């Protein structure tokens, strides 16, 4: 299996011969999120799209209106489901935390997240188990429950550590290490970090994958940090090719 970190929360997960895209965002209030060379027509044919919540850095109507309308969507909250149906998507399902769906042989479970309300993460169970956390702050109860129930091989965590009105809205690298003590995956991919010269200060996030790698090494955890830059991929053994 392979996970490509495109940018921000957008990751392309390839497993069970499926292409799954998380939080597809190409434009945010006029700023490009992925590197310039990664245009929307570079996406492979998609089998499933996951949308974690309704913020503009996770739900991009411009991008969605350029994708095929028969791609299954699993989303939260209801307003995204309604909006997706208005755009013409025909297979849209809203999931509450711990609700499950089966898509083309892949089991998807929505997980709780702690952000600003109305968000979820996702656990995908196929040839490997992947936990995509969406936007969340640190919550030991949630991470312990996910570890016990799913024992994920790959964890995709926000690490930018954005604080908003004095409250942390996303995990930072230090909290990510605490989360990884509980989750114990083989590989972690840090998302939702960085900034660009023309972006507003609100979108500047202090946490970096480099900081996470250093802290993990100090903590002596065997989890590997992969995809340190946009468009890098993490590969795990056991990828089954089409026969
Ligand atoms: Zn976000």
Features:
seven-stranded mixed sheet; single chain; alpha/beta; 243 residues; 18 strands; 5 helices; Metallo-beta-lactamase, Chain A; binds zinc ion; disordered C terminus
How would you describe this structure to a colleague?
The chain has 243 residues and is α/β, with parallel strands linked by helices. The chain has one domain (2-232): 4-Layer Sandwich (Metallo-beta-lactamase, Chain A). The protein has 5 helices and 18 strands. It has a 7-stranded mixed sheet, covered by helices on one side. The protein has a 7-stranded mixed sheet with strand order 9-10-11-12-13-16-17, covered by helices on one side. It has a two-stranded antiparallel sheet with strand order 4-5. Strand 12, helix 3 and strand 13 form a beta-alpha-beta unit. Helix 3 runs parallel beside helix 4. The longest helix is centred in the middle third of the chain and has 11 residues, at 140-150. The radius of gyration is 17 Å and the shape is globular. Residues 239-243 have low confidence and may be disordered. The chain binds zinc ion. Residues 55, 57-58, 135, 192 line the site of zinc ion.
Tell me briefly what this model is.
By secondary structure, this protein is an alpha/beta fold.
What is the β-strand count?
A: 18
Oligomerization: single chain
Provide the CATH architecture.
Answer: 4-Layer Sandwich
The gross shape turns out to be globular
Q: Helix count, per DSSP?
A: 5
- The N- and C-terminal alpha carbons lie at a distance of 15 Å
CATH topology: Metallo-beta-lactamase, Chain A
For the record, the count of structural domains works out to: 1
Name of the CATH first level:
Alpha Beta
Write out the strand line-up for the largest beta sheet, numbering strands in chain order: 8-7-6-3-2-1-18
Largest sheet: 7 strands, mixed
């Amino acid at each position: 299996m392979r996970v490509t970190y495109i940018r921000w929360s957008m990751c392309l997960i390839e497993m069970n011969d499926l292409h799954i895209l998380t939080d597809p965002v190409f434009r945010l209030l006029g700023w490009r999120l992925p590197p310039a060379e990664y245009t929307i027509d570079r996406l492979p044919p998609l089998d499933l799209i996951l949308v974690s919540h309704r913020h503009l850095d996770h739900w991009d109507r411009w991008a969605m209106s350029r994708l095929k309308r028969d791609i299954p969507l699993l989303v939260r909250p209801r307003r995204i489901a309604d909006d997706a149906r208005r755009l013409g998507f025909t297979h849209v399902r809203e999931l509450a935390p711990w609700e499950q769906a089966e898509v083309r042989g892949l089991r998807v479970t929505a997980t709780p997240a702690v952000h600003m309300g109305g968000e979820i993460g996702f656990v995908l169970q196929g040839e490997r188990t992947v936990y995509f956390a969406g936007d969340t702050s640190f919550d030991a109860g949630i991470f312990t429950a996910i570890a016990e129930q799913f024992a994920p091989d790959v964890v995709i965590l926000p690490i930018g550590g954005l604080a908003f009105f004095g409250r942390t809205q996303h995990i930072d690298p230090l909290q990510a290490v605490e989360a990884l003590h509980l989750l114990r995956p083989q590989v972690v991919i840090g998302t939702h970090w960085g900034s660009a010269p023309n972006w507003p200060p609100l979108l500047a996030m202090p946490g970096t994958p480099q900081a996470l790698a250093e802290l993990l090494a100090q903590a002596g955890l065997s989890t590997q940090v992969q995809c340190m830059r946009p468009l890098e991929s993490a590969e795990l053994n056991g990828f089954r090719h089409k026969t």
